[in-house]
Amino acid sequence: MLTIKKLSIQIENNIILDDLSFSIEDNSITSIIGYSGIGKSTLVKAIAGIHHFSAGAIFYNNELLNNTKVNIGYAFQDYGLYPWYSVKKNIVLPLQIKKIAIDQAFYRSILIQLGIDHLIDRYPSALSGGEKQRVALARAIILKPQILLLDEPFSALDTINRTKARDLFLKIWDEYRPLCIFVTHDIDEALLISHKILILRDNSYIQIDNAVRGKLKYDPEYVNMLHSLQEMIAGSN
Ligand SMILES: Nc1ncnc2c1ncn2[C@@H]1O[C@H](COP(=O)(O)OP(=O)(O)OP(=O)(O)O)[C@@H](O)[C@H]1O
């Protein structure tokens, strides 16, 4: 279980997140939604250990989260690929850093499932935005991390490929069910994939159970939930 306790983050004189507390259970997906600039990426970076916080603490299984002890996979919003490394080297880098032998079968299956097996010798400059995102996703998953942080992982994909990538992600996620935090602007995406949803708003936040996960988009319960979420994001609920 990941527990965020009274977390506050200030950048220069701006309070980005203030007194945020919530928990995420193992084997579950939590989406983070909210207006652009509200602090979604900042929160994910703090959990990844690459952004300082001004107050509060982050625990994993009741111990302070230490990213040298706990494997954290992170797909950055801007991909975060190293331009001087090939696709293969970018993907296996987390294994090399942690001195973990490559699981060839898992590596091959990720490449094939994400449709990037033909790209492994290319460099990031020779990839499309959607290809870079899939490489970033492969790199986040390669360690089979206990905590998987995905910051708008499908934003560069068109609608058809986004739907495919989402289904694929859920298939891969289901193989070992890591605790996953998924930042998205797409409320439908949040409703389709996540067990819980954290809504960040100006000066407040709400964490809700997603009762319509797995339901069809035209199901009345789904439509009601979609409308309530829209109101919650706008701050009128
Ligand atoms: N290095 C920085 N210096 C100053 N302000 C920053 C810095 N990094 C982020 N911010 C500000 O912090 C706020 C939160 O940014 P963040 O990227 O977390 O938002 P977000 O909710 O992920 O936005 P988006 O949905 O547009 O990706 C924004 O107002 C941003 O301008």
TrEMBL record:
Thylakoid as a keyword? no
Give the protein's recorded name: ATP-binding cassette domain-containing protein
Annotated keywords: ATP-binding, Nucleotide-binding, Transport
The family database entries (SUPFAM superfamilies) matched by this protein are listed as: P-loop containing nucleoside triphosphate hydrolases
Gene3D superfamilies membership: P-loop containing nucleotide triphosphate hydrolases
Q: Name one Pfam family in it.
A: ABC_tran
Q: Name one GO molecular function term.
A: ATP hydrolysis activity
Family annotation (InterPro entries): AAA+_ATPase, ABC_SmlMolc_Importer, ABC_transporter-like_ATP-bd, ABC_transporter-like_CS, P-loop_NTPase
* Domain spans labelled ABC transporter: 2-227
